[in-house]
Amino acid sequence: xxxxxxxxxxxxxxxxxxxxxxxxxxxxxxxxxxxxxxxxxxxxxxxxxxxxxxxxxxxxxxxxxxxxxxxxxxxxxxxxxxxxxxxxxxxxxxxxxxxxxxxxxxxxxxxxxxxxxxxxxxxxxxxxxxxxxxxxxxxxxxxxxxxxxxxxxxxxxxxxxxxxxxxxxxxxxxxxxxxxxxxxxxx
Length: 187
Fold this sequence. Notes:
- This protein has about 190 residues and is mainly β.
- It has a single domain, classed as Immunoglobulin-like (Sandwich), CATH 2.60.40.420.
- Helices cover about 0% and strands about 45% of the residues.
- The protein has 1 helix and 13 strands.
- The strands form 3 sheets. The protein has a 5-stranded mixed beta sheet, with no helix packed on it.
């Protein structure tokens, strides 16, 4: 980090790999595949804020048809350049010339969005957009909870920006009983 160091500060630790002493990984997006019905999707927007030249949160979950709110809390120029995957095609770019600037967009397609800032190339964040509400992000200790999954047998997938994707097939969910699973990334 060299530009705007009076606001951005010194070089920052990477958000990419946050692994604790027990080898548990933070910022993994975990989601249920093949689910066709169930609870309603939250109307709440997923918000990504630019603060001290960092996008926060680093990883988010959004829902198709709902909103992505992008905010600048820095007193300097930033951009939100949003690319969709697969394909990496730019979806849109928004300029944030001043503190307090906000742009809201509707999430129209499912899939992974990569957010970056042309003015500060070290800045990255990810929003995974789903057409169902059965997704979560792992916390500091690698744990996550996905509630109210209808009974059935599903595949569960996990995505991490550096470690890739892992899949666990045939996860059985019974009515009124918690299901515990363990997802592992292997070398």
